[in-house]
């Protein structure tokens, strides 16, 4: 009896506190990743004007970031497969913050493109690693809650964060939108650095998973195609919506933040209904 009481004191209490707070820290990181996904969209018109380029040219930032994300996601999983999840999570969050910092201070459009590629390099590995870490660390009864919180951070960033940073880019400067992403990224990095244990954990990816996932059933391919079409249509509209609504106002209020907020709220409601 005495032995069990002693073994469950300070170290066990600290470990339990870390387990409880870890999903919140990962959710904050997912929130920052979600902001980064849409940060250019709300500030596209201002970026084009600042660098004296056409909106079509500025819109390439969205394409470059998306292509970089798609390319780096499988490559990073292969390159860093032998690293522990802690190291991968912190490293790529640092890269994500560095890329957005470079974007915020970019003196030329070319440097801004480099910043978007670096941030995509970091973002491409954060979400899968965060979900993997939550699945490993959380007790069986709380794994689903932790995963729901992480993906909820992405939804919350679209519902609340995107209209906010869009308003900031209009009211102040488009660079402040990137400052907001950097702020939330640093906050998530600080929390994760304090919560994650230093000893090495299992590698990020297991060879058995890779072998078992080579052949998917037809239903999975169908869901993949539907998701591809939905995301493609969403980003096709989102990419240039700031240009279309640049001078549109609802009374005395710019229309763009309100339209983005309404769209994000509808998206969040539909996901919740599913």
Automatic annotation (TrEMBL):
Cellular location(s): Cell membrane
SUPFAM superfamilies per record: MFS general substrate transporter
GO molecular function: transmembrane transporter activity
Keywords, alphabetical: Cell membrane, Membrane, Transmembrane, Transmembrane helix
Domain Major facilitator superfamily (MFS) profile, residue spans: 22-274
Listed InterPro entries: MFS, MFS_dom, MFS_Efflux_Transporters, MFS_trans_sf
Keyword Membrane: yes
Coarse class of the protein's main subcellular location: membrane
UniProt membrane topology term: Multi-pass membrane protein
GO cellular component: plasma membrane
Transmembrane segments: 21-41, 61-80, 87-105, 111-133, 145-170, 176-196, 216-241
Pfam families, per database record: MFS_1
Keyword Membrane: yes
Listed name of the protein: MFS transporter
Provenance organism: Lonsdalea populi
